[in-house]
Amino acid sequence: MNPTIWLLAGTTEGRQLAEWLAGKAATVYVSAATAYGASLLPQADNINIQGGRLDYEAMAAFAEQVHPDMIIDATHPYALVVTENIRKLCAAKHIVRYRIVRPAEEEDAAVVVSSAAAAVQWLLQREGNVFLTTGSKDLAAFTLLPQYAERVTVRILPVQDSLRKALDLGYHPSRIIAMQGPFSEDLNRAMFLQCGATFVVTKDSGRIGGYEEKAVAAEKAGARLLVIGRQEETGQRTEDMIAVLTAYLQR
Predict the structure, then answer these.
(1) What are the structural domains of the chain?
(2) What are the backbone dihedrals phi and psi of residue 224, each rounded to the nearest 5 degrees, phi first?
(3) Looking at the whole model, is its pTM more than 0.85?
(4) 222-246 pLDDT tens trace
């Protein structure tokens, strides 16, 4: 009987693992937090795609329904609550768990802060336009900046919920870029220059998340990079997880 694997995706690594698992001798359930994320996942006879955000109770109910032999947490590095819920679930149900991690980047020339709120406090002491690349979840925090509607350019995913949130919070339409990455260094630089960015706010999304392209582009555009750091995690990189899965499926 083929094993059942539950992959919680939401990152490039999650999509890569789903693509690798497509067609393999396993029943695979892949969860994405949004319908847009689910639309990016591969289609295959052994892949079952679930869309929608899951709290702990919903995770536990789904695990009870599909009885996974293994859970792979490939959610975003900043989705700390989700990762903790997955950890608790696997401990309670005695399910094998793997966490996919990406290495942090070196931030020699950047200012590193601990949170979006800390980034706002740092920016409150300074003047200049801000280019915000941290996603729709942090939009509300940056409305504390004076003249934020004209001063802050936000780059968000091209989905209705994100765009509606930005508009409802009062961001000016001319300062909203709704676009799916990855973004090249040249495209980043053009955007930073177009909006006259003095500061570029980013998360430490790692090389696979486009951090290097943003960092180099910000330097070339004459903008200061402000990085919201993340907690260190232990786990497997994508290539290591593929090796684990290869051995697991050959048993």
Answers:
(1) 4-101+234-250 (3.40.50.20), 110-228 (3.40.50)
(2) -85, 135
(3) no
(4) 999 999 987 777 888 899 999 999 9
